[in-house]
Amino acid sequence: MDPLPVESLVVDVDVLDERGCAEVSDRLEALRPYWLTRGVGCSTFGLATYLDVLASESPQEAYFGRLDRHNHLIREHFGDLLDRVAVALAELLKTPARYDERVALPGFHVFEGEGIATAPRPSQHFDLQHRGLRWPFPIAPVEQAVSFTLPLALPRRGGALDVWAITEADMLRLERLGQTSGTIETTRPARRHEYRVGRMAVQLTPILHRIAAIPERHPGDRRITLQGHGIRDADGWVLYW
Question: What's the number of domains the chain is made of?
Answer without folding.
Answer: 1
